[in-house]
Design goal:
This protein is mainly alpha-helical. Helix content is 62%, strand content 1%. The chain has a domain at 16-134: Tetratricopeptide repeat domain (Serine Threonine Protein Phosphatase 5, Tetratricopeptide repeat, Alpha Horseshoe), CATH 1.25.40.10.
């Protein structure tokens, strides 16, 4: 009888986990990571040697102590860097279940929900993280891919607001996106943080038709800023201020995240300045590229999928 109860309990737990997994990860074709907003299967490229080595090291740390929060986080992050966003979501879900009061797991899982186009699930995670971090001290977030100066530029709090703003933006909920990005901007930080967040704030205000307020949002942005990583966002902000010409900016296409960011910013610039034809052509160029998990790429998809644009 006890053995039968054990078997039934095991079956119940297995069924529950399967249902939970189905809710977390919608069905996709074999080996695909996600579906684009137009229903196209999206596949990740094979990771390079260094990315694979970093993942192997993170997996070894996790297997040595799977109950350590840091080990779960880095195993999930390294898994995502290797292009397996669905597996990363499963790993971060283990962290959510083991450490339900730690906002970092919701922050990282939400990021990867954005990668696989599950914007509502991302919003739910970031809203939870925002509530959990309300009374916590500002927490520096280590970089998975350190910059040349090896200076971590972001915080858990800043990343939660940034990615929440992005998720709302991708749902084209401008007021909520603006509120989230402003919460992040008001945290201050490095110049890199100001230009990355200021870029989205400016675009949102222009999409809302608040041109004068958009111009004021860039008051703290200047050509003399000390930018370590976010050169693309800095260039875009200078473009918006009339201090840089489009032809002087870095290549604008969808073949890597930085270029996709620049291309999307320019496409938006064309759009709210009345040149929808050039805007749409550039958006289509972005989504024909290979960097489908880049935020600029996903935003281009969202715009092209909007029948009222």
């Amino acid at each position: 009888m006890n053995k039968l109860k054990t078997i039934l309990l095991s079956l119940t737990v297995t069924a529950s986990c399967a249902l939970h997994g189905a809710e977390l990860l919608p069905e996709v074709p074999a080996r695909a990571q996600a579906l684009s907003l137009t229903g196209e299967a999206l596949f990740s490229a094979e990771p390079n040697q260094q990315t694979s080595a970093n993942l192997d090291a993170a997996r070894a740390d996790y297997e040595a102590d799977p109950n350590a929060a840091e080990n779960i986080i880095w195993f999930g992050r390294r898994t995502a860097y290797a292009g397996d966003y669905r597996r990363a979501i499963e790993i971060f879900t283990r962290g959510v279940e083991a450490f339900p009061e730690d906002p970092r797991f919701y922050r990282h899982r939400g990021h990867r929900y954005i990668s696989i186009r599950e914007f509502d699930l991302a919003i739910a995670d970031f809203e939870t993280a925002a509530e959990l971090m309300r009374d916590l001290p500002i927490q520096l977030e280590p970089d998975g891919l350190p910059n040349p100066q090896n200076i971590p530029l972001t915080t858990t709090q800043g990343n939660v607001w940034y990615h929440l703003g992005l998720a709302y933006y991708l749902n084209q909920d401008w007021p909520r996106a603006l509120s989230a990005f402003r919460n992040g901007y008001n945290l201050g930080g490095y110049d890199d943080n100001l230009v990355s967040t200021g870029h989205w704030i400016y675009m949102i205000l222009r999409r809302m038709g608040n041109d004068a307020e958009a111009a004021l949002a860039l008051d703290e942005i200047s050509a003399e800023m000390n930018i370590i990583e976010n050169m693309s966002y800095h260039q875009l902000c200078l473009l918006y201020k009339g201090e840089m010409a489009i032809e002087d900016m870095m290549a604008a296409n969808g073949d890597d995240p930085s270029n996709a960011a620049v291309a999307y910013g320019i496409a938006n610039y064309f759009y709210y300045n009345g040149d929808k034809q050039r805007s749409d052509a550039l958006l289509r160029s972005i989504v024909s590229g290979s960097s489908w998990s880049a935020f600029g790429f996903i935003a281009a998809e969202a715009d092209l999928a909007n029948p009222n644009r």
